[in-house]
Write a structure and sequence with these properties.
Rossmann fold; five-stranded parallel sheet; 2 domains; five-stranded antiparallel sheet; Argininosuccinate synthetase, chain A, domain 2; alpha/beta; 43% helix
């Protein structure tokens, strides 16, 4: 029998797909990639896959790798899709493909299956990553296959299929929204959120953050340490990348930090509405930017600012394992070398305030920047500087006078 690896969550969709792939004649190896999903009985999930006929079922803990090798490099870029979304789901999908393909090589599977739909971004991220890492792999995306959609036109048919095969699933025919969680964030979409006029905050049971109104009435201070642009400590205590994210999720989450509501442009062309919460990463982004302001020169940071939207777009679309991304990441590693120091942030009712920053590599010179008389900056030098800068404007003004 041909064999395939299935990116398996244990939920309704992948449980159905596991059974359907067997009906199609495949031996299925189920892979649960642990990225910090909600507290679940991992062994029960794997047992369910085996009971459902999986040839093998395994869990791969990739949480540390997600933070260290995916989220933190994107943080160094200050990359936000369409200026607001911190890419928590987008970053995770290429890693899932990487892990599944590693298992596929180990077990000798020739195909890789996933449960992403033909309308969303995840199908792009899964497939583009897989084809870059293993060009010969066969991609099985059941939701893009007419025979699968004919058999399962809706959730009712999927639930009935699981019932007939004695596959336990926690699902209902109607849900107000769907959610996806990892250690970086939680995303909420679909259901009632498909109406942009609906107040998403009022219908969502947030999992990482309290509402700003319910947050403490006093500001909470946190000191964050960075080395070469990488978050490494909280209040002087060194942490691993995963520990940094987890602890900041707790601290920022209890202060109501990190909620956004966005209507975004999907890679496939449609607009979609999503609500996200990412308390830890929101705070780390703010602190990292504050330290960069102290340690990176003007022209380099402006170049980064011009390229960051393109990096965010590549991550969002799924172009992670491509030479262009490799080159951009190499550039950023060089840029981040001086970004070492500490930033004190204040967290208060959904807000992040920068309260202080220090660095041994600071480019800030008070003697030059001072508005007081004296100092090492000679203001008369600006006369010649501005005469030279203004030369093109004076020539143009004589040739083509402006009316005002």
């Amino acid at each position: 029998m041909p064999s395939c690896v299935l990116a398996y969550s244990g939920g309704l969709d992948t449980s159905v797909i596991l059974g359907w792939l067997q009906d199609e004649g495949y031996d299925v190896h189920a892979v649960y990639v642990d990225l910090g999903q909600p507290c679940e009985d991992r062994e029960a999930i794997l047992k369910k896959a085996r009971d459902n006929g999986a040839k093998s079922a395994r869990l791969v803990d990739a949480r540390e790798e997600l933070c260290r090798d995916f989220a933190f490099p994107v943080l160094q870029w200050q990359a936000k899709y369409e200026g607001i979304y911190l890419l928590g789901t987008s970053i995770a999908r290429p890693l899932i493909s990487k892990v599944c393909l590693q298992v596929a090589r180990e077990v000798g599977a020739e195909a890789y299956a996933h449960g992403a739909t033909g309308k969303g971004n995840d199908q792009c991220r899964f497939q583009l990553a897989a084809e870059a890492l293993e060009p010969s792999v066969k991609i099985i995306a059941p939701w893009r296959m007419q025979k699968f959609r004919d058999k399962f036109p809706g959730r009712k048919e999927m639930i009935d299929y699981c019932a007939a095969k004695n596959i336990p699933v926690k699902a209902s025919i109607s849900k107000p929204y769907s959610s996806d969680e990892n250690c970086l964030h939680i995303s909420y979409e679909a259901g009632d959120l498909e109406d942009p006029a609906v107040d998403g905050v009022s219908i969502i049971d947030f999992g990482m953050t309290v509402s700003p109104q319910q947050a403490p009435d006093q500001l909470e201070q946190v000191k964050l340490g960075f080395e070469a642009g990488v978050p490494v400590s909280i209040n002087g205590e060194r942490k691993s990348p995963l520990e940094m994210v987890q602890l900041m999720n707790k601290i920022a989450g209890r202060n109501g930090v990190g909620r956004i509501d966005i209507v975004e442009n999907r890679f496939v062309g449609m607009k979609s509405r999503g609500v996200y919460e990412a308390p830890g990463m929101t705070t780390l982004y703010a602190a990292h930017l504050a330290l960069e302001q102290l340690t990176i020169d003007r022209d380099t940071i402006h170049l980064r600012d011009r390229l960051a939207p393109e990096v965010a777009e590549m991550v969002y679309y799924g172009f992670w394992f491509v030479p262009k991304m490799d080159a951009l990441m190499a550039f950023m590693r060089e840029v981040q070398r001086p970004v070492t120091g500490e930033v004190t942030v204040g967290l208060y009712k959904g807000n992040v305030f920068i309260q202080g920053r220090t660095s041994p590599n600071s480019l800030y010179d008070a003697a030059i920047a001072s508005m007081e008389a004296g100092g090492s900056y000679d203001q008369t030098d600006a006369e010649g500087f501005l005469r030279i800068q203004g030369l093109p404007s004076r020539v143009l003004g004589r040739v083509r006078p402006r009316r005002y």
